[in-house]
Fold each of these.
Amino acid sequence: MKKIETLEMINIYKSFQGVRANDNINLKVSSGEILGLLGENGAGKTTLMNILYGIYQPDAGEIRVNGHRISIDSPKASIDHGIGMVHQHFMLIQNHTVIENIALGYARAPMLFPQKKMRQSIVSFSEKFNFNIDPDKKVWQLSAGEQQRVEIIKALVNGAGLLILDEPTSVLTPQETRDFFHVLEKMRKDGQMIILISHKLDEIKKICDRVTVLRKGRVVGHACTEQMDKRSLARMMIGREVIFSFSREKMSRKEKVLDVVDVEVDGDKGYPVVNGISFEVYRNEIFGIAGVAGNGQRELVEAITGLRMVTHGRIRINDIDITNQSPRKIHNTGVSHVPEERIRFGIAPNLFLYENAILKQHHQKKFSRRAFLAYGRIKAHTRQLIKDFQVATPSINIQTKNLSGGNIQKLILGREIADKPDLLVASHPTYGLDVGATEYLRNQLLKRRAEGGAVLLVSEDLDEIFELCDRVAVIFQGKFMGILESDDSRIADIGLMMAGTKDLRTGEGADDSF
Ligand SMILES: Nc1ncnc2c1ncn2[C@@H]1O[C@H](COP(=O)(O)OP(=O)(O)OP(=O)(O)O)[C@@H](O)[C@H]1O
Ligand SMILES: [Mg+2]
């Protein structure tokens, strides 16, 4: 296989049921270059990369490698040309080990599979990039960051000279993102080329050499990242000025909705990861939990929403004890949940959009007529939801998996918020959303608060926390390091508390190593 020096996509067109996902797109990458691919949710980024990776055939247009036209009619052909892709939603098989997953995608597998050689190359890539991956672990045992490293190794083992990364950092912690960028820089030095899709403009600015921006399926510009700032990138992407403006009026909180008392929860590995947490969330309040992923916030949220057993302590909603009740029962008590892994747990991909729009709510009176579902009302509700939350879709009669990643997110967020829950639990609600949708969503959370809802927001994004929350708890190693009011002067030091420093004046830490 000859090394890829340049890759061009020329006049690419692709439509789905009348939707022009790609409308005459041109782009070029060269060896040693990181190209950012930017655009709103539904702009056509994933479609374009799926064409390059042989998952879709373009309606028209061509792909050239080192100046020669090539045909890519399957992922195998793409891999043979030295192209590798890490998808927006991971595609690893959860019950298989790392080595099995990588072997499954191995393009040049001979009759007798070279187990030993495969293991060696996994270990050597793992060492080269400090990935620290155990080839014999099952995928379900790995964190999102680790799974992503497996996907990258999988592409590299196949000899990819061009690596396509579709929103690779949306599931990574800030620390993992930093490590990941070092890896990308190393690859760039090695002469690899990379196409990176991200909605995080800071990241694009930091790591990309150039950007290509799509809007509604068309290229609206190419630019050198050096000459752009966040604001001009955003303007190019959505065609208007984005001014994040939020009016979080002061509001006095009302009745208590959520009451968590001395709760302990075990993690997947069987030992406690939430170690005696207590707090309350009130009506007209947004309560934030800030923390680096992996410090127990996920398990805490799962315990509150009925997805995980509580081993000690009590949880109450509106004075009703819901400790260790079923998710359905908790939902009926007035709790909605926007889960972190929304695509995996928040929708049924093969169901129609209008079916997903009322998932878990179908038994409500307004959606049923005696024993039957009231499809008229369900569809009307879905149309309203789509309009309110600006979900881009040609119709509500399509399978949900055909929506773009960000639009699936918007559908789930809309569904949970529209239910007007007493308590809305939102985990990383703006992951994968473009700047416009992020602004909209944050305003929706404020609206829920103004209407008298209680909101529990879990986020790593400190801007989000500062903009929205009335009180913030910082979680570290399964404990709250403190709960701060939004006007507390220590709020600026939350970043340090997230790393385990408890009292900023004395420097006392959660454990002695700090
Ligand atoms: N298999 C499909 N069937 C029907 N429509 C599709 C299919 N795949 C994509 N689309 C449509 O094509 C458009 C572009 O989607 P695409 O997934 O490429 O967007 P994207 O830029 O990756 O967005 P996001 O940032 O939300 O991931 C969307 O309107 C989407 O609904
Ligand atoms: Mg996408």
Amino acid sequence: MTDRKIRILMAKLGDGFETAMMKLASAFSEAGFEVIYTDLQEPEAIVSAALQESVDHIGITTLPGADISKFSSIFELLKKENVPDIKVTAGGFLDESEIPRIKEMGVVEFFPKGTTYAELIQWAKENIKHLD
Ligand code: B12
């Protein structure tokens, strides 16, 4: 058991909308998580930062125009680096029909626009665990 905070890396697929990510990062920090806030978009960079920062979880915001096939690459890289236990959650703008597709790739949960912070934090507290 450890008393360190649960560490979440935040990244995004797509350009702009930094304000949304900053708001999310502060909501998670206020709820007691340690947030490593990045504006990384490439799978290699996201997985490399996750390893360097020894995170427990990766949270990704999908923005308008996001290339969601990058989720597949993220999961392949996590396997290749031998850290398949790092789970990935996402949220943001995404056509509803794409949600099953990203879940099939491995995304554990997707939170669409309109989800309240209270719902997000409650889910995170129940589902995101320390990896050591
Ligand atoms: C603010 C805003 C802007 C600002 C952004 C300021 C900034 N620096 O961030 C400005 C004015 C710059 C802007 C520009 C544009 N915008 Co704009 N914008 C918005 C607006 C009003 C709010 C977006 C936002 O920040 N939401 C707040 C965040 C926190 O909420 P959220 O993203 O929905 O996320 C929630 C959940 O999904 C979840 N979540 C999200 N990510 C994650 C990740 C994890 C891990 C978890 C657990 C949860 C989670 O948590 C959040 C809590 O509810 C929306 C409309 C709207 N009401 O949503 C349009 C909107 C997103 N914009 C839109 C468009 C089209 C544009 C432009 C392309 C317009 C243009 N032609 O130039 C540009 C593109 C800019 C770019 N790519 O950088 C469209 C997108 C349409 C689409 N689906 O593709 C929208 C939906 C407006 C509309 N109805 O048409 N925009």
Amino acid sequence: MANSELPILVAGGGIGGLAVALALARKGRSVQVLESSADFREVGAGIQLGPNVFRMFELLGLTGAINASAVFPGNLVMRDGLSGEEVTRIPLGAEFRARFKYPYAVIHRPDLHQAILDAVRRHPQVRLSASVKVTGFEEAGERVVVMSENGASYEGAALIGADGLWSKVRAQMLGEGKPRVSGHIAYRAVIPTPEVPAHLRSNDVVLWAGPKTHLVHYPLRRGELYNLVVVFHSNRYEEGWDTYGDPEELRERFRGQRPEVLEFMSMVNAWKMWVLCDRDPVSQWSRGRVTLLGDAAHPMLQYLAQGGCMAIEDAVVLADQLQAAKGDVAAAFLAYQRERYLRTTRVQLTARFYGDIYHAADAVRDLRRQLLSGRTPEQAYNGVAWLYDGI
Ligand SMILES: Cc1cc2nc3c(=O)[nH]c(=O)nc-3n(C[C@H](O)[C@H](O)[C@H](O)COP(=O)(O)OP(=O)(O)OC[C@H]3O[C@@H](n4cnc5c(N)ncnc54)[C@H](O)[C@@H]3O)c2cc1C
């Protein structure tokens, strides 16, 4: 097969892998997505979508599908988990849309994944191969050969590693150790909205910020579901604990916090646990005909709610650069990396900082109040403009 006829291989069919498959297919490229799971589907809970990613949805033809299941909250609200006082609020209504040109939304992760998957399936030049766990790759002249755990190998014109935090493609390319364990753990749950007492329901994204903890809640799927996330620092994990946590530990970590926080926590019987990790930013994640995308390139803590949004931005930029480079894949991958790495570095570092602000105690808690309370919407918008103005 001539090199120009070979597909671009994508390791990983998560949000980032599917988004880049779609972006490339819309430019006429053939793509093969290699996904380790038996199905192309997402597990997990809610995901927040900043206005920066809505522009990407427009470019990818996804806006209608996203809008059909997303919820458009009224405000982003931070409350103090101990006193209950409102620390700050970012209104997401008309003023926000006028400022950033696009809305802010929350969506059930499987709905987002399905919307991209449905769009990908409309392109016959994208091949979706499930149950393929990528183990490594070899560059052979103008081709890349990808090896998988089941012994099969795949030949492509290029390889995009979109295989997430524990990326095999990254491990081979950069030869680093494991991701950085933050010592923070998230429990997530999605429950039917009727199970949430009326006095606790809200159309806002509400974050209850407590010492070394926070709880976030917001509605999902046109309001039919309710998303709950709790995050806490865990010394037990830092000593090597990596199994499911127990609700008893949760009660202990949130002891003394507002009744609303405790009531939300008591509604969930089965929490799903995520151990939160990231990496220090790097400036090089492309080499020859191989590059990285999404969490494989720039894994971040979730405190800015932007990891998925960044993966989708990556996808659009990468497809644009490949088209502009007219066949020079290595040059395209370097140009893509150059265009992306400072923005994603800033998001990675700011996410860590936001974690400190959310989990503040004592003096930092007082500073949080001083810095954030009393801001006008305009001042709040200016604080996030570098991110939400988009690319
Ligand atoms: C608690 C929490 C809350 C979050 N909230 C938000 C939010 O509100 N907004 C937001 O934008 N982001 C959020 N994120 C971040 C977001 O989930 C990630 O940044 C996003 O999923 C990254 O997408 P990805 O496709 O790069 O990687 P992943 O979603 O990890 O997908 C990687 C895919 O590759 C597959 N895979 C892995 N290894 C292999 C292999 N060897 N071979 C083949 N396939 C492989 C996996 O099965 C998976 O399908 C949150 C994350 C967490 C943990």
Amino acid sequence: MERRQVVRYAFYTLDPAWRRLPADRQAAAKLEFGETIEHFAGKLLLRPYGLVGIRGDCDCLLWQVAEHLEALVDLQIALNHTDLGAYLSLPYSYLAMTRRSIYEFPEDPHAPSRLVIRPSEARYLFVYPFVKTRSWYALPKAERQRMMDEHVRIGRKYPSIRLNTTYSYGLDDQEFVVAFEGDNPAEFLDLVMELRESEASGYTLRDTPTFTCVQMSLWDMLDALGGAGAAEPVARRPARADGFTPVATLAELPPGKSARVYAAGEAVALFNVNGTIYAIANRCTHARGSLSEGTVDAAACVVTCPWHDAKFSLETGQAVGGPATIPVPVYRVKLEGDTVLITPPPAVAREPTGAPRS
Ligand code: FES
């Protein structure tokens, strides 16, 4: 028997009553919930996604991949015992397993890896359960292969969309769970529209509900639920003796990229500008826009807030344009090998702190 992985797509909804709890309890609950998940890091692969603002009936997804079913069970039991878990319901949960396709796709370079789920860094995940009609299974295998070839041909026209097909026969209500990764929802829409015209589509019995999910860090996902910020509980973790906190690797932050991380209780925006790493407080001083999502002018070393176009120097934190007048704190940055470390500033404005990429 080939070695397979078990996969679970667990969609959670938060009881709004949780948002009316005292802030200190919310903060403690997020810390407990997040650390419970982190505790399982070596036992399963887990990717958090947010659905706040996208669907009305669920708030987040935990995409879980494990070698054994028991790991998925143990994680859910642990989450059920947390304070936040008492306020979470599970309107959708899909269980599936990796396996080789029964069809031949000799030109598909990804075919050999289908037994192992390797999520990409794509911004979005599009998930839905899938059931074929019984008449599909009554067709000769060669007929089905011919239709699957057309299906694959259409998929190859959208190379930036990556498909993870997992199997649920006998394990759960659907036959497959399909999860597409991509950075552009418009491309995914076009792909699905085109697949509707394929011959195999006539043999689809059910392919809803469909979930559009946004990839985010565990703490961002918890923040998206509302209540006290997750950054604060994360800050309670012991810091290194030198005050620096490892927050990213250079592999995660290539030139031209930015990221939001947490250190000392604050959300911090990291930028790699032509190989130099800069770190400033993530919140715009005008109205708390997220600067890690801003536009960077590499020549001027300035980030523009995505909300109302305030501009901040990445070197000094000074507001240099737009509606903001108060500078943002600048963090000291250092590199240890491939690891980016930052430490909070003692005051608001300071000297340039960019660290050259080693
Ligand atoms: S929130 Fe940044 S410019 Fe308004």
